[in-house]
Amino acid sequence: MGEQHKINKPPHVLLFPFPAQGHINPLSQFGKRLLSKGVETTLVTTIYILNSTLSHNNNTSIEIEAISDGFDEGGFASADSPESYLKTFKEVGSKSLVDIIHKLQSEGKTIDAIIYDSFIPWALDVAMEFGIDGATFFTQACAVNSIYYHVHKGLISLPPDSTVSVPGLPQLERWETPSFVHKCGTYPGWSEMVFNQFANIDEARWVFASTFYQLEEQVIEWMRKMWKLKVIGPTLPSMYLDKRLEDDKEYGFSLFKANYNECMNWLKDKPKESVVYVSFGSFAQLGPEQMEEIVWGLRDSQVNFLWVVRAEEQEKLPKNFMDKKGLVVAWCRQLDVLAHESIGCFVTHCGLNSALEAISLGVPVVGMPQWTDQTTNAKLLDDVWGVGVRIKADENGIVRRGNLASCIKKIMEEERGVLARRNVKKWRELAKVAVDEGGSSDKDIDDFVCELEHYA
Ligand code: UDP
Predict the structure, then answer these.
(1) Which one, out of 109, 135, 280, 353, has a CA that is 20 to 30 A from the CA of 312?
(2) If you average pLDDT over every residue of the chain, what do you get?
């Protein structure tokens, strides 16, 4: 079949991200890279996500298919708990995925591999039922994956001792491990999901990661001893990196409406590197007390700031909140904002996409992690990659205004900021080289395509 396949048809893969913005972005971008190398791709998402998506990749030929997660009307937010969402997603989603595969096959489409988000290991069971090769795709840092692997294998106890050591990383204080590790017992559904990423990984033919080789070299080498790991990021639109994919300027799948003109008009007359951009991503929920501390921290800093507060979070802002030096928007096009020359620093929750975007666009960070992998990403950004500072919360988990203001000052005005800016520019160049022709990520994608073509 391999030879015939090679002659007649380009390979075709399904991409199946976990249904959330921070997961759809890297997998759909990977799809665009595959497409540019002659692989047909179909992105599988949920009916709810498809109906909520504001714009699709109409400038690419990624096909889209929708399955049910059991919450077609309201998605994750309409489930009683993360546990009930994840359970139903598995039950309903695996049946629905089977139906989609049958449908595609009845249309005469061959499926050569299913590349599924590592948060959805049951997709591999479905792939194997059909005799299709599976590839798991990590959207979190390899450092974080390694910690979860060690927990999964019982090599890190829960809760961990005072420090944690894994190959290729400096020793981590307990609070620097992901929250599901150091605050074990909180969010049992999510915790089980992240530890379970390794349950059937040995059955997957390939393992992908959305970071890039130079950034996590030692951990990647360690992972490569166990799996056929391909490291293919950063997965930003090509026009922000190597510029080889024409028209690839946006992720293409946006679940939120961006206030694009308002942001760009406001930024346009701000001096170079004078604005602090603040965002906690698509998922994090901050308490009202934390919101108030941020308000005062930003005011005390006396900087221009652009702050993304999602619509459902805005009621937590102090009443009639307005600030002559600030603009609050419900969502922005983060890449355009980070690429704007007026941006001087990024106060971020340290989701991996945001971290890689800051690095790829050369913006130093103030890390303000909230939960999950963000605490470890903040450690990497600060101590390992040297592209910023992170703020430690108090014993109640709240970042106080004084701490926020002093970290912003460090990056905007002090020597630490000069150093962070210098380091981030260095990483930015390495990120570009990784995805450009012949770079480490480009080569890993080429190898995958070659393996698909020859052995499918
Ligand atoms: N994002 C955006 N506009 C915003 C805030 C975030 O486009 O106003 C994008 C951001 O560029 C990133 C994604 O949303 O690609 C967030 O992913 P991340 O991993 O940083 O955090 P998560 O949302 O998964 O917590």
Answers:
(1) 353
(2) 94
